[in-house]
Amino acid sequence: MSKELVFVVEDEEDILELITYNLTREGFLIKGFTRGEDMLSRLPVSGASCVVLDLMLPGIDGLEVCRRIRNTKSTVHIPIIMLTAKGEEADIVTGLELGADDYMVKPFSPRVLIARIKTVLRRKRQEKDVSQKPLQIYTLDIHPGRFEVSVDGNKVELTSSEFKTLYFLASHPGWVYTRFQIVEEVHGSNYPVTDRSIDVMIVGLRKKLGSAGDYIETVRGIGYRFKD
pLDDT for 198-228, tens place per residue? Predict the structure, then answer.
């Protein structure tokens, strides 16, 4: 885990110093930024392994930074941990829908932040180790290596969470999964997501897929499955 490069975007200097000090002690390389625009200009060619991102930033806010990271092919797979004072459920849901891998609310424990970073990096390495082959089912073409989805040949832009959920369900047609099982598969255990946020994410996924959204079926009182 040592010598992984972590980008930290935080406009409060004392918090930035606190994060930098603790992550450096843990063996990470740290590059700090106080503005999202500055970080975005460096990220594609940096080799960064993870981004710790505040939401309330001068200039473009953290949500827009997250959106741009996820909409850029060279950075789409970089894990994002949102770190913010905005702890309302609506804020968390929005961050996760945009593709954040984790969400921590201030005040926070540096030790917990370090544990969260290690978890998302470990998960990302495991994903690389597992051979995820392109999947063709009904009118859908899903390509994990390129992080691409198309319906009847037309590309569909999905967030990281939406893509992982679709691939997971489509890889097991007919199997019913609870909301908790979907969260655990996509984000790992102990992830701060409510049943409502999963339902919201599924609604958004179906909408983006258009007619192919009907392949994701609701099993009342249990969860979801992909049409068999």
Answer: 888 899 999 999 999 999 999 988 999 999 8
Q: Distance between CA atoms of 205 and 162, rounded to whole angstroms? A: 6
Total Cβ atoms within 10 A of residue 99: 21
Residue with tokens 């909409």, as numbered in its chain = 71
- Residue 208 phi, psi dihedral angles, 5° rounding: -65, -35
Residue written as token pair 């969860």: 223
| Total Cβ atoms within 10 A of residue 128 | 10
pLDDT in tens, 115-148: 999 988 887 776 655 456 889 999 999 998 788 9
142-165: b (≥16 Cβ within 10 Å) or e: bebeebbbebeeeebebbbbbbbb
Q: Structural domains in the chain? A: 5-129 (3.40.50.2300), 135-226 (1.10.10.10)
DSSP string computed for 89-144: HHHHHHHHHTT-SEEEESS--HHHHHHHHHHHHHHHHHHHHS----EEETTEEEET
Q: Which tokens belong to 170?
A: 């489509």
Question: Which of 192, 193, 201, 139 shows the shortest CA–CA distance to 165?
Answer: 201
| Closest to 186 (Cα-Cα) out of 163, 206, 208, 153 | 163
Burial degree of 204 (CB within 10 A; 0-12, 13-18, 19+): middle
From CA 26, how far away is CA 15, in angstroms rounded? 17
> Do residues 166 and 142 make contact, with C-beta atoms less than 8 angstroms apart?
yes
